[in-house]
Design goal:
It contains two helices and no strands. With about 50 residues, the chain is an all-alpha fold. The chain is globular, with a radius of gyration of 13 Å.
């Protein structure tokens, strides 16, 4: 089930090819989860938390 502000499978299939390939550093386990987190923060920013 897709939560609010998360990418659907169809949307992810369009976004995934646009991401840069992993070259150096620690590989991200789930790139889709990272993108969903960025989108969620853009929609609902944490106010006053650092």
């Amino acid at each position: 089930m897709v939560r609010r502000h998360e990418l659907t499978d169809e949307s992810w299939s369009m976004v995934e090819p646009l991401l840069a390939p992993v070259r150096m550093g620690r590989p991200v386990r789930d790139r889709r989860r990272v993108v969903n987190g960025i989108l969620g923060e853009a929609v609902h920013p944490l106010t006053g938390r650092l």
